[in-house]
Amino acid sequence: GQQLNQSPQSMFIQEGEDVSMNCTSSSIFNTWLWYKQDPGEGPVLLIALYKAGELTSNGRLTAQFGITRKDSFLNISASIPSDVGIYFCAGHPTGTASKLTFGTGTRLQVTL
Amino acid sequence: DAGVIQSPRHEVTEMGQEVTLRCKPISGHDYLFWYRQTMMRGLELLIYFNNNVPIDDSGMPEDRFSAKMPNASFSTLKIQPSEPRDSAVYFCASSFEQGVPGANVLTFGAGSRLTVL
Questions:
Q1: Which residues of B fall within a CB distance of 8 Å from A1?
Q2: Which candidate from B58, B93, B110 shows the least CB-CB separation from A41?
Q3: CB hemisphere CA count around A42 (13 angstroms)
Q4: Element (H, E) at B36
Q5: Ordered DSSP codes for A61-95
Q6: pLDDT tens track for B50-62
Q7: Minimal C-alpha gap between A85 and chain B (Å)
């Protein structure tokens, strides 16, 4: 099935640094979602985006729905150790009302 | 709300055995999804239900896999016979359709880690 291209695959950063990751698709998406997965747990929703150009924040997290509707990015400011985990983008391609397609994930490591 | 509840959390079985994974969705959610997660393939949608009816099972790997949703509060994913390549984490997720068409936002369970020896 279709996959979203997510980059980078992994990041090693120091506490306090800002983080940026993005997701691209060859087709148009109706929604973009960002999830975080902690070890041994299921993905948890961070931010949901519903309109092209939409910019939404959730605490230190900011995400945007790209104007072309084919991409999205997630920024984390002033990272802290508990930001460690795998971040997934996900979205609904046009014409798939219910099926959510996931990106390949970005593994984030934060060092003190 | 207790969230999406999956059982068992861990299962170790031998090749050829039947495996049954269980899921209780969030009350009031009318969509239920089964995903499989592996290092190689990431998160893959296996099947999803709407109002207890299977809508799309195109992700089910083969006939050894089957899923049922006998009522709004329970679903099973069965593998018979199991094979080592079925080893993965299986997630159940539920949702309801948001106000924006096509904007299902999924809530995931903690997953069932399956190891087939």
A1: 44-45, 58-59
A2: B110
A3: 22
A4: strand B31-38
A5: EEEEE-TTSSEEEEEE-S--GGG-EEEEEEEEETT
A6: 999 999 999 998 8
A7: 14
